[in-house]
Amino acid sequence: MSGEPFDWHDFLGRWQAEWVPDDPEDDSGDSESLGRPGADEAALAAAEERLGRRLPPSYRAFLAASDGWRVDQTAGVYTLGGVADIGWFQDPHGLTPLYEQELGDAPREEDVLLAGMWQRALRLETDSDMSHALLDPGDSDQDGEWALYVYQGWSGELPARHPSFRAYMEAVYRGFHGSRAGRPDFVNATTRLQDARVEEARRLALRGRHEEALPLLEEARSFGRPHSRVLLQQLQHLTTPGRSQDYGFLAADPRYLPEVLPVEAMTPARGEWRLGGDDHWLGMMAARGVDRRTAETVLSAMRDGVHRYAPPGPWGRAVAEAWEEARWGATDAAWRVLRDGLASWEPPGPELIAPIGLLADPFLGPLITPERGREILSTPRAGEAGAARDTAPDPVPDLDPPGLAWLTGPTVDGQPLDGYRCVWVEGADPAALPALLGQEGAELDVPATARELSWRAFRPRERDGVERVEHWEDRAVVAVGRTAQAWAFAFDGTCGRHLNERFTSPAAAASASGRAVVVWRDPRAASPRHRPAAFHLSVAELGRELYAFTVRGTETRRSGEIPERLDPVRLFRPETSELDNELRVLEALHLELGLSLPRFALTQGRLRTFTTRSWTRAPQAGERYACLTFERDRRRP
Question: Which of 26, 148, 384, 481 would staple 168 via disulfide (CB 3.0–4.6 Å)?
Fold first, then answer.
């Protein structure tokens, strides 16, 4: 920035011509001059001789254009002095030792510079609110520019750093514009230019050229121009979908409310709203003009997982089709439907440039990864296809690998699953699984993430509809979906209990109308001598078990006529590792039976759930069992 030609006379003259008081009721200073005549070379040289240093280029050029400037109470600094006013700061407040004691054993370079700045800085302000504008000759760049620090003594915050005096003045100028942007009488060449750039950025964004739109909106936002913030937030939101955004008064506009209000409700619905809870959020929405009952309804639907993104028109039909795919775990297929339908998206008004309402849908929202968000923004929309770039970005690859081998790898937290079990039912409607496998009265519950499922799995007595749970029972909370090969599945990735001799396979009960497969992988216990890893497979058809095996360490129990490809002797080899054996059996299940599971939906998305009947039978006469309960002592931290 500092090395570029810069006309201080033009910049300061424009600022002076545009100046109006911050208070629209105060017109007493309309003709007041912000600057003074520039200092001549002799005055500049005399100041440099007095200071013993040559001034940095951009500050020296500023003084030659205006020997001081009134910055209009920006950041606590009111007036910058001229050549006769400036002097060395010399740390009158004793800040150096305070900053030096925070450096530690391996301080960052910027922290060392800041600690030494107080003794060597040049003070520029002559009028302020306990604030200082300090040029630091020890923090300079290749062009000879000194960094400028603004220290607000009353704030308790670190000084704000600007790389040069010019950068500081440009930031102050933008702040001057931002503080007056809401005034209808504040219209000038700069505001007209920035508003034109906002409109240009809006068109670029709809044409899929969001990377070109981004810097235009960032600059316009720094000037406080209307609409720039909300347009910029949509670009940022889709490239960082997990980040919360505040769309201000847009949520109250009936045109945008169906897209925006559910997105605004995502944070309080997750329980992450810390500022006074629901009442505070609802009050904030009411202050923006949102009907309280409407906000309550949307928040309740978001919290219960029943909200559904349902826009009108051709885009709405694509969304509905994708929703049907995503709700049973076919997230890649759902994304392809959305991608193909994006061109038909139409904004409900000029302040929306992307379908951000997708993010609030419990099934479709998790599909929008940062990469897919960028693909949305790179897709021409709203009839702008003819203005697209010649070279479109490559489509984001599918996220679900084929088969089951992914079960052995790391999931969202970087760790593999600590055991898993699953029931597949061939050709079944996933909605029918609670009747086949569920506890009495079981129905599909609201969509849940893998983390939410793990919380439920270890609290069986807190589940709705369960009047009594015996200690010996092993009821699983399972996620429900459909594979690409049309197997309905019920998957448990938490496995709070272990595979034992009282295990009763649910395969026969699940196979009333066709084939059913049960797989249970029980991990090794903490002590290998206590319990080795185990793997169970059972296959049934029309209510009758066809074959099964359970392998635990070197012991194998088998029944029925097991296909050669699934023979445990072939799959579990003592000379190979547990991981290799597991990978071998999972690959065989995929090849022999066509089994698979959607990794993305099970680890990062949301699926419907229900609670199964117990996977273990009741103890028989003479059998004993022990139940250990661990409770945290709440009196201790």
Answer: 148
